[in-house]
């Protein structure tokens, strides 16, 4: 059968299938809440996954949230808390009755509790830790002792390990007799007598091997040990780059203290991406469920930075007010040069920021990339110079104006390619997140250069 | 120990740890290639993972690439091909001798071969399919018969399944006696007599349960079946939202045809993110290893769209040339209003595009989000109106000019919030990727509104 012949689901069906949470379901749930019909609410929520319920809570109004949670009461599941965004999470915790909260938290794994409490205020954090059993509380407090954003915060302490000299049969018997296996695990970790991990045996491989086979002979080729203080960003990179499913975490002495599984790494990767996209757009942290005041506060600083750069560009224009007064066409055309430079610069900078994040832009190829971006700027500059010269000539009937426009366009697009690459690379060298700060710098450069080149050429050439 | 007391690795150590591929290693390898020292090259490459070797090949020059591959010869591993970016992959395949290529491809799993050949030209594709054994070739060709970007292309056909009435002991015995278990699997899939999947039993749970326990009683709570034609984007969403590790894939009749594992989903998620970021910045597909010509071609259309919108903005300015000739200060200040609007619009639009991608912005909350963005625009508009009025007054000493500036700023930031949300939502409704097209529309709106409001008010108020 040919690929073209394959029926793709219609959009409607796809939506049906992909969204567990349809607007129709949301409306029905809000309806049940309004009528105070607890049984109907529970029936409607029953098929929903905790992640979908969390999405629902994020999408509705704060008053509806409170009403829903109070009506839902004891049905509230701990996993919903784990899935909620921070901004909504704190509010929801406040809505829960102490008994419901206690029950919800006790259901969770220790790494989920860590994730839940690490950004809470002291009193809320205490309230949650207090309901945990001593063993769990100790595990959570140990994890909290590791730096924020480190592997130690991400790992779960439950692991399955085996001495390096065991064979397959011993490992299987051990697991079958153990009464506290983790909820999710994919490897048996081989350890030496000092508890240093020396290899991973996948459960699949274990199943496929005879009982007498030594574990040592069937360890996976790919084996990475993660230091407990390693940055979670590097952990996510390793999982993504080497296709890891789980990896052992070790303390400063190299002793096994826990494991990180791919689902945790996937969440970190997702967050890093989100952060990059939002930072590139000059949106600080923030989510759709933030209130107006928080959102204004989050966006104001970035607009303020932009205001400063815009004023700098205006000051360049102000130097040429005499020329503009004589040739108003300059005022009409100058935003084009600046805008094209800004766009070309953003293109280069986005490619560079992404390449730095994925570690594809390194000391080994930085000069080649800069050279390429400058050449790309030159090529596009020449193309658009020609286009703009034609536009300028036919619009204002002046050959000189067309030449000035063309020259400024070439210069600005070359500078855009250069600045768009060099600025993020330099910021990265100084350990400033290039996604965070490059945009403002690059557009300042392209605005200033664009206005200066265009108006400067005009002053020399037209007067 | 307190979190603050924890020593974080210094940057140098972190780099050492996180980058298997340091510029030093790259330099040593290129050195060995230049000297034609095959043994040293092999020794240097030996500790590197296929993914790192692929990164290396992407970072070096095309001539170096050819020399390295020819020197490395038979050592070349099939997995390196899987890890390469498409643009470099085709070139590398061309550099490999037919025997080396054949050997490299035969090592791969069927889903990796699909990934490898699906975007190759017909002759290259044929050359690779020809070296496969008949069974593998049939599996690859079946996968290629599913639509591009569908679950069918992503899945592996190797699965471990068990009849629904089996118990733990039977499943384990079956696996231990099977001689063709997949390389990586995490679940035993329970199927009914018609081969419809009805549940997943995780290997960990299997290990933890007695031999007599029926499989049906220990299936995972979370179970999603993926239709073979489902879009890979929806597959990745499901894995991310529901923390799946693997999921069965079924054909139109609901029969089990394969499975998708989390590592494949993670790659898709990563690609989707990359695409979103690049599209938001007006960079088409493309990678750091593309040549200048390809890069120019990729970026030109986006700059051309921007040129059209910039010219539209200029045409608005041209309507007011008389006013500008009288008050040159207007030409100096007008880019500020447009630039602030453009930035605020980009903020709103990025948040909206992300929220649509993560399905947090739905029919249920779209009006609330639009309302919020407009209010945020109003609040920031008022703040910056005040600031700019002060700047305008002290810079040009004119109260009227300050009032015009402030009024235009408020209007443009409100419109930015509105356009930044409504435009991506509408594009999404019409099945146009909002990441792709929103930027140009939104900045057109903010430029046109910014210039028109500012110059229009000035024309009325200052003349």
From TrEMBL, chains A, B:
NCBIfam families: mgtE (TIGR00400). CDD domains: CBS_pair_Mg_transporter (cd04606). InterPro entries: CBS_dom, CBS_dom_sf, Mg_transptr_MgtE_intracell_dom, MgtE_N_sf, MgtE_transporter, SLC41_membr_dom, SLC41_membr_dom_sf. It is found in: Cell membrane; Membrane. This is Magnesium transporter MgtE. Signal peptide: none annotated. Gene3D superfamilies: CBS-domain (3.10.580.10), MgtE N-terminal domain-like (1.25.60.10), SLC41 divalent cation transporters, integral membrane domain (1.10.357.20). Belongs to the SLC41A transporter family. Keywords: CBS domain, Cell membrane, Magnesium, Membrane, Metal-binding, Transmembrane, Transmembrane helix, Transport. Coiled coil: none annotated. GO terms for cellular component: plasma membrane. The chain crosses the membrane at residues 300-318, 324-353, 374-396, 402-427, 439-462. Residues 218-275 form the CBS domain. GO terms for molecular function: magnesium ion transmembrane transporter activity; metal ion binding. It comes from the Bacteria. Homodimer. Acts as a magnesium transporter. It is a multi-pass membrane protein.
């Amino acid at each position: 059968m040919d690929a073209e012949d394959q029926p793709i689901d219609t959009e409607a069906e796809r939506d049906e299938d992909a969204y567990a949470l349809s607007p129709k379901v949301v409306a029905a749930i809000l309806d049940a809440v309004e009528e105070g019909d607890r049984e109907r609410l529970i029936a409607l929520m029953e098929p929903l996954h905790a992640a979908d319920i969390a999405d629902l809570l994020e999408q509705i109004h704060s008053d509806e949230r409170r009403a829903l949670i109070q009506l839902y009461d004891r049905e509230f599941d701990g996993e919903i808390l784990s899935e909620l965004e921070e901004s909504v999470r704190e509010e929801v915790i406040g809505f829960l009755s102490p008994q419901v909260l206690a029950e919800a938290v006790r259901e969770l794994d220790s790494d989920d509790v860590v994730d839940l409490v690490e950004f809470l205020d002291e009193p809320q954090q205490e309230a949650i830790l207090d309901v945990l059993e001593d063993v769990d509380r100790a595990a959570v407090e140990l994890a909290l002792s590791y730096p924020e954003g480190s592997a130690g915060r991400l790992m779960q302490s439950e692991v399955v390990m085996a001495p390096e000299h065991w064979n397959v049969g011993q490992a299987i018997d051990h697991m079958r007799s153990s009464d506290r296996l983790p909820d999710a695990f994919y490897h048996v970790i081989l350890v030496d007598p000092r508890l240093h991990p020396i290899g991973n045996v996948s459960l699949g491989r274990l199943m496929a091997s005879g009982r007498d086979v030594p574990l040592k002979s069937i360890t996976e080729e790919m084996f990475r040990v993660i230091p407990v203080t390693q940055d979670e960003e590097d952990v996510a990179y390793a999982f993504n780059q080497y296709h890891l499913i789980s990896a052992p975490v070790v303390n400063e002495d190299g002793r096994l203290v826990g494991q990180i599984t791919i689902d945790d790494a996937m969440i970190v990767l997702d967050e890093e991406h989100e952060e990059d996209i939002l930072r590139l757009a000059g949106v600080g942290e923030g989510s759709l469920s933030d209130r107006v005041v928080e959102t204004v506060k989050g966006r104001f600083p970035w607009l303020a930075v932009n205001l400063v750069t815009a004023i700098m560009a205006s000051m360049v224009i102000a130097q040429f007010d005499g020329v503009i007064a004589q040739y108003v066409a300059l005022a009409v055309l100058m935003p084009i040069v600046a805008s094209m430079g800004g766009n070309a610069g953003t293109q280069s900078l986005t490619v560079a920021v992404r390449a730095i994040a994925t570690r594809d832009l390194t000391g080994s190829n930085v000069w080649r990339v800069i050279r390429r971006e400058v050449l790309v700027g030159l090529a596009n500059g020449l193309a658009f110079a020609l286009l703009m010269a034609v536009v300028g000539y036919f619009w204002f009937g002046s050959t000189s104006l067309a030449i000035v426009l063309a020259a400024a366009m070439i210069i600005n697009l070359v500078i855009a390619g250069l600045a768009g690459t060099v600025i993020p690379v330099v910021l990265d060298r100084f350990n400033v997140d290039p996604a965070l700060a490059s945009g403002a710098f690059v557009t300042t450069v392209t605005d200033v250069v664009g206005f200066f080149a265009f108006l400067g050429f005009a002053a020399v050439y037209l007067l």
